[in-house]
Amino acid sequence: MTEIPAGSVGETFDAPVLVLVDLETPRASAAEAVSLLAPSRAGLALVAGAAALTRADVVALALGPVGADASAALAGAGATRVLAADLGQAGTQAGVVADALVSAVRTVKPAVALVLSDYHGKEVAARAAVLLGSACTADASDLRVREGALTASKTVLSGSWSTTLRIGGAGTTPVVAVRAPEVEVPGPAAPVAVEALDVVLTPESLAVRVVSREPAPTASGPDLAGARTVVVAGRGVGGDIDLVRSLADPLGAAVGATRVVCDEGWLERSAQVGQTGVSIAPRLYIGLGVSGAIHHTSGIQGAGTVVAVCDDAEAPIFQMADFGVVGDVTTVVPQLVEELDRLRA
Ligand SMILES: Cc1cc2nc3c(=O)[nH]c(=O)nc-3n(C[C@H](O)[C@H](O)[C@H](O)COP(=O)(O)OP(=O)(O)OC[C@H]3O[C@@H](n4cnc5c(N)ncnc54)[C@H](O)[C@@H]3O)c2cc1C
């Protein structure tokens, strides 16, 4: 499925496009956390996709310290302006992030503001759109400019229908939460100067005070929303997440989960893929012991190749799988891992 068609020739906006980019700590550099914050891969892909929508500036907004490397990465992806607001710990609260996005919209006056369609991004988009009095949609993909307006594809009714939306309204900037786009991100370029953004905080945001913070346990591996390969654990793995990782790790894949797996506490809630979890668009999705309930598969509509290993030949996952193995994960996964080892040797 095509996401934002990076580099495609088509109608474009005359006005800038604003993209909210998450900053994250590269896993290998946790010790030097703050100075080494880098744009997330999904955020860079969003910037790369946004470049196809406008002839004007592609403006990246990052909430945190943006160093030369981060700016170079954003410039390589296609950002021509970089705005940064270092709001410290408060910069992770959806209300504060929405305030920052609104401040950036008022500064840049973009045709559209894009955020990533994960839990956090959807809340930020909704809050910002309310403050701006503008249109908002989430889980959008395949963004295009048609007759001067933004259009996007979106699946509805748990993925059973695909719709095309026209988003916007006269004189307002729509805020769109976009599914992790699957586009090639060019490497770093000459960094662009980072402009400090003044954020006007609303009384509602100021009223929220974070009294404590406890990091949730996270699945190892790359970021789920932007990963090219995702291995998803279903109930059929019986809580054996090591088995799932034994396949995910050699593939460099992110580990996702069905809701059952999160309900059981086998993986953290942020790993949940589906209607009430994260929507993903990897090139390769591998479901292990996943039945393929529509609440789950609605979150993988953007996946390229779908591979399923499940012991029930009647499971709905096989209706959308490109490759399916009817078998026990405890038998099939070690064979897959062994074959990967053999191919690498
Ligand atoms: C409003 C709502 C929202 C929801 N949102 C989500 C969501 O966001 N994401 C989500 O995932 N779900 C969601 N659900 C739940 C969803 O409907 C399913 O219940 C869930 O996806 C099933 O997860 P599963 O495939 O792991 O489990 P199951 O449906 O139980 O499937 C497990 C599969 O594994 C097979 N199996 C068992 N043992 C083995 C083995 N050893 N080897 C191989 N295969 C084996 C079984 O035969 C079965 O086919 C939602 C439900 C509702 C009502």
TrEMBL record:
Domain Electron transfer flavoprotein alpha/beta-subunit N-terminal: 42-199
Textual note on the cofactor: Binds 1 FAD per dimer.
Flavoprotein found in the keyword field: yes
Pfam families: ETF (PF01012), ETF_alpha (PF00766)
Keywords: FAD, Flavoprotein
Reported cofactor(s): FAD
Residues noted as binding FAD in the record, renumbered to the chain: 235, 258-259, 272-276, 289-296
All residue ranges annotated as the Electron transfer flavoprotein alpha subunit C-terminal domain in the record: 223-301
Recorded GO MF terms: electron transfer activity; flavin adenine dinucleotide binding
Statement: the UniProt record of this protein carries the keyword Flavoprotein: yes
GO biological process: fatty acid beta-oxidation using acyl-CoA dehydrogenase
Role this protein plays: The electron transfer flavoprotein serves as a specific electron acceptor for other dehydrogenases. It transfers the electrons to the main respiratory chain via ETF-ubiquinone oxidoreductase (ETF dehydrogenase).
Quaternary structure and interacting proteins, as annotated: Heterodimer of an alpha and a beta subunit.
UniProt family annotation: Belongs to the ETF alpha-subunit/FixB family.
Name of the featured protein: Electron transfer flavoprotein subunit alpha/FixB family protein
The species this protein was found in: Actinomyces respiraculi
